[in-house]
Specification:
Blueprint: E1 2-7, E2 10-13, E3 16-19, E4 21-25, E5 28-33, E6 39-44, E7 48-52, E8 54-56, H1 74-83, E9 86-92, H2 99-113, E10 119-125, H3 133-142, E11 147-151, H4 163-176, E12 179-183, H5 201-204, H6 207-224, E13 228-233, H7 236-245, E14 254-258, H8 260-264, H9 287-295, E15 302-303, H10 333-341, H11 345-349, H12 351-356, E16 374-383, E17 400-410, E18 413-417, E19 420-421
Parallel strand pairs: 1-6, 2-7, 8-9, 9-10, 10-11, 11-12, 12-13, 13-14, 14-15
Antiparallel strand pairs: 1-4, 2-3, 4-5, 7-16, 16-17, 17-18, 18-19
This protein binds zinc ion.
The site of zinc ion has 3 residues, from loops.
């Protein structure tokens, strides 16, 4: 007898919603079928959507910056995630320059993530790994990470990876089944004057800095044949240029991630009294850019939130240099994107993420033998009023949504149901293993 069956729901199965039953046993999807079989627990999902658990490939829980640590830790951050139907996160190790530091960074993060309610994986992260690239990539693969992130900017804090190492990483990625994630902004086109206030963010980090660097890295990806993944694309213009000049490699070996906030807000919000709460890197773009990004949604492969939350007091600065950059976003990411774009966002937040981050088919899909990670979504008009993270404000306050998460399941156990979180132990997911 099966443990649980979800009946009568509209299940996102084989790429579309179908009226079909989902059977769960021992933490896995045991069967998807129109036929009825006995189960210990029967959940009637009549009228509701049953969707694979969201995978957020871009979170920064408990991120230690020089003067401050982001507010959501792995415990509260993953609780907030579960309220939003998120069942897996991929967070980042501290950036390193060599193999032994990578191991330290990994063990530190593993300890940080222990209280997670949902499953988690990590991206390795490098700074300026001269002559150390091969050792680092070998080690990260051993530890179950087949993604490594670099920054093309932040040379001021020593975090920039330079072109030679970027190319070396891309070369290696082709032979060793990993993907290079890049925070893409041209460092030379970023200015950080002491005079700048946070309202100058669009001037400090202009669109051209993202676009020009993205085109350069796309060229490297093309030349090397390596696997490149652009994190948090912010600008419609960047995407339009990539599509025009590199249509042969985007969605193949140049993968594009964007974030909900770049679709919802434009940079005029910085002029509001609470504009300081809408600061992140790359920054919000013009209304025209946001419109262009909307029109190109089909060319966005994945959605991540770049969740990096702070309280009002943490962001109570005028000077840009002092401002910790980042916002919360994990809890409402699905509702927001679904309300804006409908069914087409589902693969961008589930299966595509799992494929590009090498979690597929364990995660990201409802099918036999996959982990029983899913959520039930009730369609009804509503609006965002609050969240369950640590921070004292909700930047999406008042946003009109078309539904609400009413149940979330992780590896066959309900972790959110009847308005309550149910304790559960998230697991570290070692990627690259077939199970
Ligand atoms: Zn980030």
């Amino acid at each position: 007898m099966y443990d649980i069956v979800l009946i009568n729901g509209n299940v996102f199965y084989e790429g579309l919603f179908q009226k079909i039953n989902v059977y769960v046993e021992a933490g896995k999807i045991a069967l998807v079928s129109i036929d009825l079989y006995p189960a210990k627990e029967v959940i009637d999902c009549e009228g509701n959507l049953v969707i694979p658990g969201i995978i957020d490939p871009h979170t920064h829980f408990k991120l230690a910056l020089p003067n401050i640590t982001s507010r959501d830790d792995f415990s509260q951050g993953t609780i907030s995630a579960a309220y939003g139907g998120v069942t897996t996160i991929i967070d980042f190790l501290a950036p390193v320059n060599n193999e032994s530091d990578l191991l330290v960074a990994f063990n530190t993060r593993l300890a940080d993530a222990k209280p997670s309610l949902i499953d988690y994986a990590f991206h390795a992260c490098v700074m300026n790994p001269r002559n150390q690239v091969e050792g680092i990539t070998k080690k990260m693969l051993e530890l179950g990470m087949n993604t490594v992130k670099l920054f093309t900017t932040y040379s001021d804090s020593g975090r920039r990876t330079y072109d030679n190492e970027i190319k070396e990483l891309l070369e290696l990625s082709k032979y060793h089944q990993f993907t290079v994630l890049a925070h893409i902004e041209n460092d030379d086109l970023i200015t950080l004057s002491d005079e700048y206030t946070y309202r100058d963010l669009p001037i400090s980090r202009p669109t051209i800095s993202e676009t020009s660097e993205a085109l350069k890295l796309a060229q490297y990806a093309k030349e090397t044949g390596g696997n490149l993944y652009m994190v948090h694309l912010s600008s419609g213009n960047t995407l339009a240029e990539l599509k025009e000049k590199f249509n042969d490699i985007i969605h193949q070996n140049f993968i594009i991630e964007s974030c909900p906030h770049y679709f919802v807000f434009d940079n005029s919000i910085l002029d509001r009294e609470d504009g300081n709460l809408y600061t992140m890197a790359p920054p919000l773009r013009s209304k025209m850019e946001v419109g262009l990004l909307h029109s190109l949604i089909d060319d966005v492969d994945t959605i991540g939130t770049d969740h990096c939350s702070f309280n009002k007091v943490d962001k109570d600065y005028t000077q840009l240099k002092k401002m910790p950059l980042g916002i919360a976003g994990i809890e409402h990411s699905f509702s927001i994107m679904y309300s804006l774009f409908g069914d087409k966002v589902i693969p961008k937040m589930t299966e595509n993420v799992a494929r590009h981050h090498r979690l597929y088919p364990k995660k990201g899909i409802i099918q036999q033998n996959s982990d029983a990670d899913l959520f039930v979504y009730q369609l009804k008009d509503g609006e965002i009023t609050h969240h369950h993270g640590m921070t004292d404000h909700e930047i999406y306050q008042g946003f009109k949504v078309k539904g609400e998460v009413i149940m979330t399941m992780s590896r066959g156990k309900f972790i959110y149901r009847n308005g309550k979180i149910i304790p559960h132990q998230g697991h570290y997911i070692k990627r690259g293993e077939t199970e």
